[in-house]
Structure formats: C-alpha cells, structure tokens
Design brief:
This protein is an all-alpha fold. The chain contains two helices and no strands. The chain folds into two domains: 46 residues; 57 residues.
Length: 104
C-alpha cells in the first residue's frame, strides 16, 4: 500500500513539474516576444541621429531665409514709410514755392 501511495505522489509530482515547465516555456516565449519588440524599436532609433542632424540643417537654413526675409521686409517697410513722407514734403514744398511766386 505504501508503494501505491508513493507512486501516486510521484505521479502528482511529475504532473506538477510538467505544469511548471509549461509555464516556464510560456514565460520564455513572452520574454522573447517582448525582446523582439524592443530590438525592433531600437533598430528604428538607430536612424535618429542622422534625422536630427538633417532637421538641424533644415532649421538653420530656414532661420537664415527668415532672417533675409526680415531684412528685406524691414527695408521695404522703411522705404514704404519714407516715400509717402518724401512725396508729401515735395508736394508741400512745390505748393509753397508756387504760391510764394518763385517758380519758373
């Protein structure tokens, strides 16, 4: 009778070991899958330094273009502000000289 109980205990232990082994295999598969996802993300990140350098170059070019545009618009704005004033001064001076009698 003790041999039967020992055999039953042995069978139960083997069953438990099979279940634990199955759980370990599932855990290993899950870890492998997570590692594959992490490696894929890391592979995508390898191109980031080149992309960052390209964006920095583009930003520098855009800033230079904006600086030139600002300088042109600044000069254009100044010119547009000064031309009407110059025309107004010329008209006033012409009228003043005309009415003063000093015209050709």
């Amino acid at each position: 009778m003790t041999h039967v109980l020992d055999l039953q205990a042995l069978v139960m232990s083997v069953g438990e070991l099979k279940g634990q082994t199955r759980e370990l295999v599932h855990a290993a598969n899950n870890n492998t899958q997570a590692l594959n996802h992490a490696l894929a993300a890391l592979a995508k990140m390898e191109t980031l330094p080149a992309e960052v350098l390209a964006m920095k170059a583009r930003i520098t070019a855009l800033e230079m273009a904006e600086g030139r545009r600002g300088a042109v618009l600044g000069f254009g704005g100044w010119l547009m502000g000064i031309l009407p004033m110059g025309g107004l001064v010329a008209i006033i001076t012409t009228l003043f000289e005309f009415f003063r009698g000093k015209h050709p």
